[in-house]
Every structure is written in C-alpha cells, then in structure tokens.
Design goal:
4 copies of one chain form a homotetramer.
Chain A lengths: L5 E5 L6 H10 L8 E5 L5 H18 L4 E5 L2 H5 L4 E4 L5 H14 L9 H25 L4 E4 L4 H11 L3 E4 L3 H13 L6 E8 L2 E9 L2 E2 L1 H4 L17 H7 L2 E2 L4 H4 L1 H15 L2 H16 L19 H14 L3 E8 L12 E9 L2 E4 L7 H23 L2 H9 L7 H14 L13
Parallel strand pairs in A: 1-2, 1-4, 2-3, 4-5, 5-6
Antiparallel strand pairs in A: 7-8, 8-9, 8-10, 11-12, 12-13
Helix pairs in contact in A: 1-2, 1-13, 4-5, 4-12, 4-16, 5-6, 5-14, 6-14, 14-15, 15-16
C-alpha cells in the first residue's frame, strides 16, 4: 500500500505538534500517512525548526515510511493534501493576553473562546482561515480541513458558510469527558455512550450510559467535570440536579459568571492570566524540544491543556480515511438537529464519521432550560462571524451587546474600541487602509 | 339595541378602575356595555367601595344605561360575562416591594415583570388567574379574558396553555409608543404604522412608517423612547443604530443592565423602590376617589404609570365586539410567527382583531441580533410558568439561573429561597401543607 | 394633487383591458392615475390598437385627467412606472389549446394553470416575465408588479426568487368567493370574513363569518362553489363535510379528477376546449371593441371568465397607494405562515395591504387533510420554476412525474416531449440553438 | 450467563416463524435467548401447533438452552418479556384478498400496505396492536416492541402516539437493498453504505458508497431494484436519472401507477391476487412444516416474499441487547430529521442502534422532487391512524380522498363503504354495536 497520503499541518510550529506526530506514528497501521508538511508563518520560523526537527527525530526513531517537511510556503504544503489541520494563533500569545486582560478592566470575563476575548480571537482568526480555505479551493479542493483553532465553532461555521471547503471543527473537551467517564466507571471508552448537545465550549452531556445502561442519575451529584485548564469553582449542585445534564466546564463562565470573574481578577493579579501561564509553559516546552536527544513527546506537554487534541484529530482522520462509521463528537452544520437554530449554524453533537463526512445524529433530549442560552450564544457567534468577514464595527458591537457575559452596551462599546485598536495589525478588514 | 353586554372587572378595586369606567362611558356608542361588575377579594373590600362608588357616580353623571355592581363574589361577576378583565395584584404592593428590593441585596435588578421579581409575581399570579379561568370555563366559557395583569406575557401564556379560556394579553407600552410617534410626527395614530417584534416588555419596533413612508432611519438617533415609569438612563446611540430598531424601554434592563442596577440601588436608598413610590401615589389617589363630589377620572391618575391601559382594553373590546379587523399590538400564541420559538409561546406582535379573536400578522423583519435574547427570556418564561403550575422549586431555580440578569446559580439559589419563603402565603403550590 | 401616477399595462391589448380602464375611471378619486401605458408585442399590434382606442374613448368620456398611451416599446412604458400589471399570454390562445388538448391524448387533465398544461404555460411565461423584471430593475426598480398572468402562483414565486422586483400575484377567485358569499348571506363584502389557506388555484376557505359570527357549519352542504368558467361537476358532499372547509373550484381537478377528465374528453369532442371557447368569445369581443361609438366596457366581457380581475387589481393598487391596511387575499412569499413549505414558496392567503407591501396574516387552521396535497403541488411548482429558469428537461420531467394528476412517469415522458417540441418557439431556454 | 432473556412472538403461528427461530439459533452467541413464547389467537391454534412443533424440533436439534412455549394466552407470553415481535394478520389472508381485489373494481390499485387496501389493513390492525401495547404497559412496560406487522409505518406511529410502549418498525426492504448492492458490487455488507430517506414502503436510496466512495452515479441506469414479491414493470430510466436516487420498489405503485394497475387487473384475472398466490404458498409451507422429520427452515420459505424479515428482527434485537451502535434502517419517530413532517410522524431512515434505542441519523440530502409525495402519503397515514383509533368514517374518507392513488372522492366513498362493510367483524371501533 504505497499510496500517497499527505497531511498539511497549518501552524506546524505549535507546541502541540509533537503530540500530533506521535499520533501519526502510533496509528500508522490504520492511517498510513506518507507525508507530513509542517508549515508556519515567517515569524514562527524559529519555533517551526525546533518542533520540526523534533518531529523528524520522532519519525526517524519509529522507522516508518513517513517524510516530515518543514516549510514557510503554505501553497507547497497544501498542494494535493488529503487532510489539513489548523492550529494557529494569529497575534500569538500576546493577543491572547489582550483577550484575557482587557475585558477584566471593564468588569467582564476575559476568555479566549467566548465573550469579548473570544470575539477578538474570531475577528483575527476567521479571515486568516478563510485565506487558507481559498488556497485549498485551488490546491486541494477535496481535502478535509480539521479545524481545532479556537473559537473552533465560529471558525468552522465561517469556513462552511464562506468557502467551498469541507471543514470539521474538533475540540478536546468531549474526549476529556470520555476519559473522565472511563476513570469514573472503570471501563474502556467503547462501553460508554455520552450524548452531547450544544455548541463548541457550550455543550451539555444529556445522557451517559455504560454498557447501554443509563448512569446519568447517579452522576447528578453536582461535582460535574472540571479540566485542569479551567479555574476550579465548584458547581452549584442544585443546578446540576435540576438540569439533569452535565454542563461543559466552560459553562462555568455562564452559570457561575460572578465567581469566575472574581477568580479571574484575583488570579490575574497574583499569577497573571492563563495566557501568561501558558506562555511560560510553552517556553519551557520549547527548551525541552531543542534537546537533540529527545525523540518522543515529553510528558510535560500534558500540562499545556491541549490534552487529547492530537488524539481527537488522528481519530477523526482515521475514520474519514477508513469509512469507520463510529461515533465522534464534532462541530458540524446543524441541519435540523437543533430546530431553533439556523440550518447552517455550527453545533457540537455526536456524529457518525463516514468517508463522505460526518453525519450528525439526532439528539434524544434538549433540556428546555438550555435552549435560550444556546440561542443567545449562537446569535453572538453569527454576528461575530459576519463582523469578521465584513469588518463592520456595528456588527461587532451588536455581538458584544447581546453576549450574556456583557452587562451593558455602554460597557461593550469602549471595550470594543480598545480591543479593536490594540488588535489593529491583525484586523485588516476593520482597518483596510492599513493593508 | 337592548342586548345585554356584561363586563367583569377582576381586581375592580384597583386605582386604575376609574380610567376603565371612563373608557366605557366614552365608547358606549360602539361598545354598549350594560353591566359592569367590579369584583375584588375580601381584603380589598374597602378599596372596592371607594372605587366602586366613584364608578357609580361617573356612570350616573353620564346618563348612560349602564349598571355598576360591586361584589366580593367572583362567580356572580363572571356568570354569563362577555368580557373579563384582570388587573389583580396577589400580595398587594407589599409583595411588589419584595420583588423590587430583595434582588438588589444580591446584586440583581429588582423589577416586577422580569428577572427574579417578575418570576415571583408570576408564581403568585398564575395560579390565581388559573382559578379564575376554571370559574370562567364553568360560568362564561366563551367570554374573552383580557389580561393586563403583569407579567402579562407569562400569565397569558399560562392561561392559554393550561385552560380552555381564550385569553389575550395586553400592555400599555405599544400604545405609549404610538402616542410618542404621534407627537414626534404630529399626525394622528391612523397615519402611523409601527411593527412590533418580541415578547411582552421585551419588544423592538422594527418598522415605523407615516402615510406608508418609512421613517425609521431618521429615528435612529439613539434617544429611543422612555416612559415616565422607567428610570431615565439614556440609550446607547451606537447600539440603536446598529440594531436598526427601537427597543422597548424595558430593554434597558438588559442592554444597560449595569447602569439600571446602579440606578435602582441608588434610587432605592434615596426614595424607595418604584413600588413604594406607587404605594404613595395610590394612597393619594384613593384619598381623591373618596370625595363624594368627584364624578370623573382625576388627572393625577396619569402619574400612576398605567396610562393607556384602559384605552387599550376598551379598544380591544370594541374591536372584538364589532369585528373591526383593525391592527392592535397584543400578546397572543406564537403560531409560526417567530420560527425559533414554540408554537404555544406567547409573543407580542401586531394582530388583526376580528370577532373570532386576534390573528397575528407576519413580521417582516426579526433583527438577527435579538433572536437569542428573545429566546433566552422566553426560556425563563416557560420554566417559570411550569414552576408556577407545578410548584417545583427546581424549575424556578432553572428559570432564574438561565435569566440574563442573574449572574450566577450560586446567587440565584439563596435569592430564590429567600423570595419563596417571604412569599410563602401566596404560593400554595410550593407550600402545599399550608393550604 | 397633480402628482404623476403611472401605470404600465403589459399585455395591454388583452380583451380584459377595458375592465381595467373602467376600474381606473371609477376609482380615480382614491387612485389618481395620470398615465396609463398599454404595451404589447409587435404580433399584438392590431389588438392593442382596437383595445387602446376603446380605452382612450372611455377615458375621454370620463373627463378625467388621464392620458392613455399605446406602445410597442416596453421600456417606454416601464420607465418610472409606479405600478406594472402583467396579463400576457406567450404563444397566444394557440398555445393554450395545446396545453388543454395534448394531455387529453395521454389520459391526463388538460388545464392551463396546473398539471402538464400549467407547466407548459409556466415554462413559456416565466422567462418572459423575468425579462420584464430585468427591465423594471433598470427602469422602475421600486414599482410594484401586480401579476395576474397565470399560473399566477408560480410566476410570482419565480419573480420573487429570481429578480429584485417586488411582485404580488393576484387572482379573481378569492373575490369571486366573496361575491358568492355576499349573495348567499345578502350582506355587503365588509361584513364578511373568509380565511383562505393554500396556493393559487389550490386554496381552501377554512373560515367564513358574517358580522364576526361563524357561518361555515351551515355551508357544509356540499354544493361548494362553482364559477362559470369551470365545468360543472357537483362536489362530493361527504368530502366537504369531512374537510370542514370549502375547496376552491379548481380543486375539482384533484378531488374529482376522474370525472373532470371524463368531462374534458367529452366536452372537447363536442364543443372544443375551453381555449377554443375563449377564442371565439374573444373574437366576438374584439368585434364589439372596434365600434367607434363604444366608450364603455361591454357586458359580454363577463362571459370571458375574468370577472373581478380588474376589480382585484385596482383594489390592490388603491391599498398600496393609500396605505389602507385592509385585508386582501394575495399570492405572496410564505415566510413561516405554512410551516411545512419553504419560506420563499408563494402561497395564497389573507394579507394586510400596507404601502410597504402586503403582510400575510397567520392562518388560524390548516386542515390536516390538505397539507400533503398542498405540498405535492408546491413541489411540482418549485420544480417547474427551476425548469423554466434553467431549461433543464429533467426538472420538467420530475415536475410532471410528481404531479398528482399524472398517472405514470411513462406517461409523463412522451407527453412532455410532445409538448416541449410543439412549444419550441416559446422555449428558448430549452432550445437555445433556436435563439 | 444464565440470565433470562424472553422473547414473545405475537402471531407465532405465522409461516415466517421458522425463519425467526433459525435466526435465534444462529445468533445465540450474541443474543442468548432463553425463552421463546409463540402466541396466537384461538382461530390460529392449528397453525400454531404445526409451526410451534417445528420450532421445538429446530431448537432441540440445535442443542441450545432455549425453551419454546406455545400458548393462546397472550398475557403469559408477554409477562416480563424483553422483546415482543408482532407479525399478525387480523382477518387472515381472506382480508388481504379483500384489500387487494375490491379496489380493483373501482379502478384503484389494490395493495396491502398503501392506498385503500393499506388503509383497511391499518384500520383492522392498529386497534389490535394497541390492545397488545396496553397489555405490555402492564406486563412488560420496558420491553421493546419490534413491529413488522404491515403497514409497519402506520402501525408503529400509532403505537408510539397512543401508548407508552417503545415500538420500532422494521421492514425487510432495506435489507433487501443491501443484499442487492452486495451482489452488484461483490463486497460484504459492511463495506457498503446506503442512505435511506422516506417512509416505510416509500423510501428512496439517496446515497450509495462502497468503501466510502460514492457509486450512486453509475447506478443511475434505470434498472432500479425489483424484489420478487412485486410485479415486474421496468422503471422509467429518465425518471431515475432525474431523481438521482433509487426508489423503493413499492414506489412503482406511484411512479408507474397506470401500468401497475393494468398489471394487477390482468394478473388478478389470470392467477388471482398476490394474496391468493401467498395463500397457496402458505398452504404448501404448512404441509412441509407438518413433517415430523423436518427440523430446519425449508428453502421454499424464501418464495414467500418475507426474506430477511427474521434477519432484520434478530439483528435489531442483537444491537439493542448488546448496545452495538451499528447503523440499521428503521421506522422511528421523525424528530426533526424531515423538517416538513410533524415530529411524531414515523419515518424510515438510518439509525444508530443503542441499548437505549435507535437514534436517527440526519439525512444528507432529501431530493426536492420527493418531498411533496412523502408529505401526501404521510397525510393519508396520519388520517388513517386517527380513523383507526377513533372509528370515524369521515377521517377514513379524508384519508382515501387525499391518497395519490385514488382518482376521485366519488370513487373513494362507495369503495370505502364496501370495504368497511365487508371488514365489519374486524372493525369494532367503526361498528361499536357489534362489540
């Protein structure tokens, strides 16, 4: 089986890359990748080399017939690719620091995937991803784009709406839930079934069964699930019981907005934002990566918070490649699954992954209580996407003024202006004269 | 035309009653009411008499063949009634004071028609109104219930869902908008057309035309509309322009939540809540009403904040009675008008009023930005209605925890418990052993 | 009031025109038309002159300040028009004869507004109307197109989907129903309310009230309503009672398909098709029109079958012009009124006519029994529209094979081919080399 | 693994039973059935014994720890059952003969699962199945009902709407399609994926892939698929190509109505109806079954037309039992999968089978051309179900008059009356005095 199977990794210089490489090595039997192209922007050349050389050492050690290419020329990487993964950060960690800290000054949660921070990240990222999609339309129109660039839901929806490229959004959170359930019930993943309903970073697990028997009731103890990369405020146990569903840990930003804001303000004062923590972790990782004797993924990578990203990506590629028709939780166009959202809205639900793409499964229950919140956040997402594509400040203002975490249009407006201005270099649609 | 035409006024001892009586007198030509039954609860006997005697003096002065009956026996009032109006306040102004002040202690807006205050009012009111609907099913099953008891949207939805009575919710706000437009454009009402989209106390005017020509654009100056019974925070002009629609003044609680909360806290400290202001006004009104020489509606009633309520009610009765097929803005079941809400959700939109009832008109535009907020508030309303009917605390908690004005489930829970406890006497569904 | 008010009448040489002129004369007070432009194609020059000179004599007699222009230059007629009415017949009565006779050879009903005949008429007409719409986009982009060219529902949907022109479809059938009800109940039209549900030539009257009191039950006697231009087969009384609604007389083609087909075959043998009858009537009318002493609409026009067309058109123009906000039954985009049809499907329902256009009213009841039939015919209509626009034979075949009156795809295919071939000269999209 | 696993087979005396028994024997490893209860009505005692003894011989030969019980007491069979299969024929083959012959007299297709015949079968069967469901609610409320009693779609919808029992409808047709595809592409079933859209006996295969590569285009040759139990009229090749989908062989009744009717009339004259053919086959089968030396399923059973029924049933039970989460084509409530049908309408689509039940998958494409036909037939089905439950003749008339195969209400009415009358003994809801 000498067939060419080419994967382009956009943002190849990311600290996550070694995990992805490990995934390709471990799954080579079922996903016989022949070429991996790590591509990054000129500013990332140094990191690309560090990570790329490590990737080459890892592959060499494996003895597999895979070649790892490093390039700053995106078109070379995309040409005839079968899969394109995207893990980029427009504006680098500096922009994330803005996303997380500026809102705090206005008494608003600073978070890189929702609220004002998530909006700014979307405004920076969507045009960049659409540029890649344009290139793909020309160079590899049938390739799958596996997008795990955050805010993954908005980015995936934008690509599906504004390009002809088939994009699937994926997130490590559902996989994390499965890992947690595996540990809790001490069974392998394939004996567990969890139903996810909602949007990226805004989902609820409305059904959990082990060997087909429902176990949700016994889980309604209010501890919920908290991943290591989200601050630890306990859940409100009465709320969880009343919901009869397990909220994503990101839902703490909504259900415990007050406490989370307080926590962010305190943590930020003490130890800096999550972005600053991550920056430090990344610097340490890159120091490790440089070691010419290192030829495997270092354990410290797991502290980085992106656990399972690579696992999710490789699993999805395997299923698309092999027409596996297994169930995965993905970000896909709604169709009619959630009947109160537009058909082209991107949602996060269980899908059957066929070679023709993921097919969403019906959701057996959407708790009445959560429909309004899902719709409110989706409204913000739609407005943000259109703002990103059009560069219209008024759409960005509408998005913010209607976001559940923003307490006033009078707060939204100056906050928006400050954030737009500081991000100016990354927002050519908003500042076209700067192009 | 000696046909009997009987109107039952539930909560007949209300300070609003003289306005209603005036309406019947002025419109007798087109709405030849023969009997008005003012009914109240025993605790309201004193007020009923004061108001009732004034009503009798007003009718006597008019010389019209109308009889005004005062009674504490609701069944007498309802028997064979053609129209039933409801303007009650379970728990009286004391309960309103709770609704408006307890949330403030938790840093949440205290308002009698939305948020925690609106929920408590709904929990007290819905069972009482359903009791009346049960009586109507037996005594006047074909009568129209004109409900202007707040929260009018929830109450009307509850009656339409949980009884066989035909209920229409009405509010003075749309009429107020028309009065404001009449003044602004200096034309009579019938040359103006305004399209309303949304829910009770959560609507947007998305179209304004005068003589059929659109005038909305020139109105997008950000001053918006503020009625005298809502505190005066200016609108955010950029928001209004971006919306391309005029938000209801109640939307300040959402769009300017932070400022409105601050304002409530300050005003409450200085001059008491709106409830306390109203209580004072009402006491003064009742002093006036006692004057045996008074035989017309006193001008001071307009300060009370309920301007146009009577006008709205009489106009609606006239159209139902005469099959007028004119356009009125009413609270009716959604059908498919707003496609993202359930068909049985109560919405506030323009309707054609026929003798068979109001028929909603399609809305020509629902601004994308507002759909999520409408859905979020409707979710809270649905949960509140089911909580009121079932007496389930967990539904009330879900309602609050998902309300856009409540910043945390951990805030919602103790606030809810305090409010339930203090309202105990009015919540037999929640405290059944007390029945 | 010297304001210019220009009406362009496309197909001005039609035998209907005198009725339209009479309408403008009678309603000049409320609709002060200043210019009427009668325009026709070169082949219609002779008829245009006969009708046009009559129109000029009628206007002269009226003494009103209206000018009547005759032209073969459509662009002159359209320039700055306020209203454009369309009453054209691509292929003239000859094509109608094909529509009505060829299907009979295949054992299929031959009818000019549905089934194979209706499809052929749509295929000929839609491109011609879209051409006019293109001219209007350039010459009078804000004008209203009042389309009463059949099949009016499909044509109107095509224009609304494929141009930027505001088109309203109208039909004389609803007005005919009102006339019939006026006679039956002996009351003027404004005391009657009838609710229409469905599509053009496929509607049901689901509610009839007089002075607001429902009278539908007493009408369920099975006689239904039959206009003079539709063959007289009696209705099935049990069906009508079971429906609880009055079907349009066109529904006989569906509910009594077998009898109607038999009737067509017999009538066609005896006296020719309806088209041939009409041709004879028209010839007689034009003989009358030529009389230079005639300066009013001759009574014989009513036999022609288009009674009330002009009344419907002038009434609609009056309401659009004066922002009357009265209720008219029109063909407009569905929005969400019928929730099982696409939002852009054209439906025939009651609307409020404002200067900004008609706003459909919610329907209070859609009998469950008729939903599938409405959807089946709408499917045929959608496919036909796309066939007309694209010239794709396979879409026309799909349309026919799924039409409820066509008993087999093996019947549909040769019938389609024969009809396409004979209509070749009028189907440039299907026969592009002929262009 | 000594756990009890009980299956009740309603209509156990059916000629299909040996196939089912064979299925249980072959799959015992994964579906360790311990008890099989064959139950039938007193009139079927003789057949039950013949079939039951064969079943016992088959099980004995297998040496597996399964007991086979024969009973006329349904409650014994149902008590604590895990699965209940239903394969009954109210009125026996005689009624089927009526279903297939009476319509022919009226020039209407006689078919036991759609049109007038299907309606009568539904009217006889639904109340009988609902009786069983009532027993199940009391005796085995958590059991799965696997319904393959025709008309399976209507029966399953009726049970899901009018009882609390979890019913799944299944049909051998999708499995037959898979067998045909396996042969055509010479690959095992698990390398094929076919997407089904529609209703029971009214589906289209809109996607076929082998190893994930689409093969639909090459199949658009017009031969379609014909099973041995449906008369052989060739498909119309142009239609198939235009559809871009493979219609179920039952769709010949709709797409080739004329030819199928002609064929039925001729066949009926020559060789009797399908019912009569089946009756003869069954008599022969029962002769074989009586042979005390026979202890396996005779090959002749495949001529009976129910091939794969047992395979479908056992496969479904295995997946429910083992939480297999594989894809099967089943009849389940619509949810929002087909957005133009009610949520509680039963549709036939691909589902993931979990222990909690089947979860429908989104359909990736619903050909526009078929939506109206699906809706038209579903309308007939809904009306038929309500007629069956209520015994209202007018609903049955509406169902027939709106069925695409019935050419006139005037045909429908006498045909209905004749069919009701002859079925009188099996229609207690319609003839309550006979109860």
């Amino acid at each position: 089986m000498n067939k060419r199977l080419k994967v382009a990794v956009i943002g190849g210089g990311s600290s996550y890359t070694p995990e992805l490489i490990e995934g390709f090595i471990l799954n080579h039997n079922e996903l016989p990748v022949t070429e991996i192209w790590l591509v990054d922007i000129p500013e990332g050349r140094h990191k690309l080399q560090i990570v790329g050389f490590l990737a080459q050492r890892m592959v060499a050690k494996s003895g597999l017939p895979i070649t790892v290419h490093l390039t700053l020329n995106r078109r070379d990487a995309l040409e005839d690719a079968n899969f394109v993964t995207t893990q980029m950060r427009v504006g680098l960690l500096q922009a994330r620091i803005w996303d997380e800290t500026i809102p705090l000054k206005y008494g608003v949660i600073g978070q890189e995937t929702t609220g004002p921070g998530g909006m700014m990240k979307a405004l920076r990222t969507i045009p960049a991803l659409l540029d890649i999609a344009r290139d793909m339309e020309a160079l590899c129109p049938d390739a799958w784009m596996l997008n795990f660039t955050n805010p993954a839901g908005m980015v995936t929806e934008a690509i599906n709406k504004h390009s002809r490229i088939k994009a699937i959004g994926l997130c490590n959170a559902p996989l994390g839930i499965y890992k947690w359930l595996m540990e809790m019930f001490d069974v392998p993943s394939d004996r567990i079934y969890a139903e996810f309903v909602g949007l990226n970073h805004l989902h609820w697990v409305t059904q959990v069964s082990v060997d087909g028997e429902s176990r949700l009731e016994e889980m309604m103890n209010g501890d919920g699930y908290s991943a290591i990369n989200v601050p630890q405020s306990s859940w409100n146990a009465s709320l969880i019981r009343a919901l009869g569903a397990i909220p994503s840990y990101y839902l703490k930003y909504f259900y415990l907005q007050k406490e989370m804001l307080q926590d962010q303000i305190e943590t930020s004062a003490k130890e800096g934002t999550r972005a600053e923590v991550v920056k430090k972790l990344e610097d340490e990782l890159f120091e490790l990566y440089k070691d010419p004797n290192l030829s495997e993924k270092p354990g410290q990578l797991e502290l980085r918070g992106g656990a399972y990203y690579s696992e999710a990506a490789v699993r999805l590629m395997k299923s698309l490649y092999n027409d596996t028709r297994d169930i995965q939780t993905l970000n896909v166009p709604n169709g009619g699954i959630l009947d109160f959202l537009p058909k082209d809205a991107c949602i996060e639900v269980n899908c059957i992954v066929t070679k023709q793409g993921p097919i969403p499964m019906a959701v057996t229950r959407v708790p009445q209580a959560v429909q309004g919140l899902i719709h409110a956040v989706k409204t913000y997402e739609q407005l943000t996407i259109e703002a990103a594509v059009s560069g219209k400040r008024e759409l960005a203002l509408l998005a913010l003024a209607h976001h559940p975490l923003v307490p006033s249009a009078n707060v939204a407006e100056p906050m928006l202006d400050e954030m737009l201005e500081i991000n100016r270099a990354y927002l050519p649609k908003f500042y076209p004269e700067k192009e």
